[in-house]
Design a protein that fits this description.
The structure is a homotrimer. By secondary structure, the first copy, chain A, is mainly α. Chain A has a single domain, classed as Ammonium transporter fold, CATH 1.10.3430.10. Helix content of chain A is 63%, strand content 2%. Chain A has a two-stranded parallel ribbon with strand order 1-2.
Amino acid sequence: MAWNTNLRWRLPLACLLLQVAMVVLFGVFVRYDPDADASWWEEKKRRNISSDLENEFYYRYPSFQDVHVMVFVGFGFLMTFLQRYGFGALGFNFLLAAFGIQWALLMQGWFHHLDLQGRYILLGIENLINADFCVASVCVAFGAVLGKVSPIQLLIMTLFQVTLFTVNEYILLNILEVKDAGGSMTIHTFGAYFGLTVTYILYRHNLEQSKQRQSSVYHSDLFAMIGTLFLWMYWPSFNSAVSYHGDAQHRAAINTYCSLAASVLTSVALSSALHKKGKLDMVHIQNATLAGGVGVGTAAEMMLMPYGALIVGFFCGSISTLGFVFLTPFLESRLRIQDTCGIHNLHGIPGVLGGIVGAVTVAFASPDIYAQPGFSKDVQTSRTQGKFQVFGLLLSLAMALMGGIIVGLILRLPFWGQAADENCFEDEVYWEVPEENSAGHVTEDPTLKPPALLIPSGAPALSAVLVP
Amino acid sequence: MAWNTNLRWRLPLACLLLQVAMVVLFGVFVRYDPDADASWWEEKKRRNISSDLENEFYYRYPSFQDVHVMVFVGFGFLMTFLQRYGFGALGFNFLLAAFGIQWALLMQGWFHHLDLQGRYILLGIENLINADFCVASVCVAFGAVLGKVSPIQLLIMTLFQVTLFTVNEYILLNILEVKDAGGSMTIHTFGAYFGLTVTYILYRHNLEQSKQRQSSVYHSDLFAMIGTLFLWMYWPSFNSAVSYHGDAQHRAAINTYCSLAASVLTSVALSSALHKKGKLDMVHIQNATLAGGVGVGTAAEMMLMPYGALIVGFFCGSISTLGFVFLTPFLESRLRIQDTCGIHNLHGIPGVLGGIVGAVTVAFASPDIYAQPGFSKDVQTSRTQGKFQVFGLLLSLAMALMGGIIVGLILRLPFWGQAADENCFEDEVYWEVPEENSAGHVTEDPTLKPPALLIPSGAPALSAVLVP
Amino acid sequence: MAWNTNLRWRLPLACLLLQVAMVVLFGVFVRYDPDADASWWEEKKRRNISSDLENEFYYRYPSFQDVHVMVFVGFGFLMTFLQRYGFGALGFNFLLAAFGIQWALLMQGWFHHLDLQGRYILLGIENLINADFCVASVCVAFGAVLGKVSPIQLLIMTLFQVTLFTVNEYILLNILEVKDAGGSMTIHTFGAYFGLTVTYILYRHNLEQSKQRQSSVYHSDLFAMIGTLFLWMYWPSFNSAVSYHGDAQHRAAINTYCSLAASVLTSVALSSALHKKGKLDMVHIQNATLAGGVGVGTAAEMMLMPYGALIVGFFCGSISTLGFVFLTPFLESRLRIQDTCGIHNLHGIPGVLGGIVGAVTVAFASPDIYAQPGFSKDVQTSRTQGKFQVFGLLLSLAMALMGGIIVGLILRLPFWGQAADENCFEDEVYWEVPEENSAGHVTEDPTLKPPALLIPSGAPALSAVLVP
């Protein structure tokens, strides 16, 4: 299958069309929230506030910036572990996220943030956070197809996934009135199973021809750790960013901090125990250590208790590492699910666990725990709420599978510029890659010049495929 | 031209003299702002505040830290794209910024932050942000001369540029009463055209002898993306950091977020469209994607509307990419402007555009938009204000050109330790560079040892120049 | 000395046992602070607060996140400068910090944060910051033994050091009532001399056999700069994170900003002056530039004055650089102290200086400076307080030496999986390291394939040791 990977007209057209559409739709629909509008001084009067600090901006801006870093640096660098796909990992993540946040602002705006007349979407800091959240779920799915799809396919996937995400989120949060502040269900479970379904549909029979590039090198593993650490450090902000002011945000940060710490220790333990010489594997350190953050996504703002958070982290770190060792090879060989980054282990299973933890925490919450006046959940009994949480989880799974099939089939069409199986995980296909010699800089020694030694490894294979 | 690049006494003397001068001047002139002084409890009484949260610190500290990251990690890593100039990019940026912020605190303090008696500069969080802003304009200019100047030249350039920046800023903000919260004019336009003028004056005839090192390698492009992404992510903080409390800060962040997202898509579009095989170029992804942030610098805090921000980003990303492809080669070959990082495309043109966007936004602002009591611009009509914005832009350009010529001529003097044309873009000149073998670590294999293969490429050329 | 470095059962057991212990102890002892508890609405009533913003979360969360970045990215990447120990630097720092923060929450909780009944530790944002602080002192000590100890030894060291840290901190802050907000004494002095004592006890006679790996390569120096810059940029948050609300936090940030700027210039000056060709050394830029932050740790929140901060930074940067050039070789050859990262220069001497600066600043504080009502130090005269500060410094030193000897002797036991002298500073020992060819990616050329050329350098030596 030698598809044409020259995107010269297709990619520019796709980007420009989408961006023009965004401009028009924003022009028609999007205005500022009162907190961000020049009429804020009237809003202050209306709400009887004296201090500018009560502007939502000051409650949420620091968390927003941390979430922003997670989406662009966190996910981006986490995926640079491949030896020859760093440009694609960072660049395509950048592209899809930049488009995705715009589209998410619109989609989520229509569902959640219309003004009283239903005419305009009102934009404030919380919208920006939610748009980043929505895109995070696309970044998760990107992890499954990393290195195997073209940027055009990614834009299409983003367009559809953001749409579906918003519908699913609306049903969960507004119809089922489910709690999911850190998105174990809406972001991680949905994103992971969506991505896994897409990669299943896009199954590549001869991917082992790219196997040599589907691993890391020493330096690429260090770059990936930039992603891991920023995700790990800022996850408390992620899980607390849209919680209620005050104790809920505070508690969500503490629970996430605890859970993540625990998952580091169990990831290390399992990684060493499962290696025949007891050595640690960077894949586990880069990924499974984060499972604790996914696992407390739903319950972080609840009265989970610090020890509860530790227990969640304990199991998520362990199960995630076990998944990398046993499940990923099984999924690939038996179920034909080629999951480049192992998102099933980092987002899939821990996401489902997180949904269940949330349901259980809610179901067994004593009624007086959230007894403060005006707490929105005092009408439903805890048990009923627990059941709705489970419905929410199942619905997210169903939406992910269904959506993944449809989108996967669309992406299988042959004209999106995807690479051949033997050219996957290779930046040369879509990027102008600098030539380099062995020492990382151009050498004077003529015996080291291109011909035999220096042509990037993918090049001969590429020309062989593309020329005929 | 074989200058002496051994800085053993010149660089230490320059650093120590400047630092001693800073200590003395700070001792004579600098004290704490009431918000940072032990007398804060009296200040609270005076302003009739009950909460410590009303301390300016809590309004601006998170934005300050983001700006700080942009200056040191953002600009620093952005410039590590060169294959053999990573130490210089990070180290010299670190040095000039560390000196520049101190000098900027003094200069800006004398113009803007004297106490009522005119005796002391009062230091608070806003001063720190403004000092970082000022230095950002030096970092911009550094991009034009990257790899071609000595650290002593950079210290001299910083000394003068900070001074001129402050004068220009004072005239714009205090005399013309221009709006420029994100610095499209004062930071980007001024910084870019100052830097371009300096590099024009410092024209190097035989720079093509260093051409082989004036490009990236695979890993250096990944390092540069650290810079790009932190600049991109934190730019909303940059443009909102010194805006008025409340809606203005909030709005500036939203507008910048939107503009930047749009410029990513158009940069990608143009990058692919302008490559004969439709491949993307990392230079564009690293730079042009940021043009949206520059372009809304002036207007971000205004009622630009989200779609307005998207439009600005749309054009800035496009024009910036076009600039890299067509304008930079033209400037170099015809106008003898050797612009290492292409700052003309990232800061020059988008800065000018940003100034114009600001002028237009102001000129067409309906009078009731900023009608809240105490808004400082209610005396001038919108149109007049628009004209003043244009004057501000033109003045920034004039100051940059004039200042650049003077500083360029000073830097041309032969005793600042600059490298020869054939040794530009090479860390060996000013840095103790570790020897390394091809695999990135010392090898046992004797056939791979230094003599023929492993000497860093610059070394023979260097000794040839320096020894005689 | 051929120890068994296969940690297959020892490391997993250690991690799991410690983590289970954490879960149990958290279950018995740890609950939420009222500010993070669902009862916050009652707390608001009790304290007569109307705004959620008065929740401690909003005062300290941004600083907390910055400190978090310093511990995990700052210290982690700073130690990646070694050419073949990047996995160990990042991974082991991650592991010890993730365990350490949990243990510190408990230890510090028992000493400082019990509820009124003395039954439960109440967890809030300030506890998280203090736990990170405590772990920072372990990261400092890790720098001395980097590359020479096993992860099991690090976990043991963390267990003991956190315990001792908390005792020392309790005596200083609660019994001697010493001021040390940024931890010059409790964190840096204690951490550094503890680590130096441990490495002294663990002296390795034949470490020169690993000398070739105890240096950097070009790229590893760039990775290390990620650590340096994030430490440098966020240090103002570190020194202000637990200061009193309002002016103290504000002032601490300003002083640290100033001090750090000065230490960059003097580090550069000395680095160049001490090199025979005037070249800069990345070791100094990576480390000595940070000494200004250590040096104002104690005094940052005091009325040190900006010029006072500059003076502190001036001397700390200078002395630290001098230490790297003259003292480290002396300590190694004469005193048998093998200090991998030179922590004595970055944390040891500047920490002691910082303690003295704090004592002097306190002793000469005019009585009316901190005269606001309720200021905790109005009972002691300034001079007495100054003396107590000195006692605190001496006590920290004594605790570090004593503790270091005990812990060093424990770590000398032969069954913790430490590597032989000739395999130090090598990731192969504890990590599954990806194979790679010279160009950083797998090559097609059969003449370049593993056998002779491509085996990572450590491998032959390793097998020689491990096989017999």
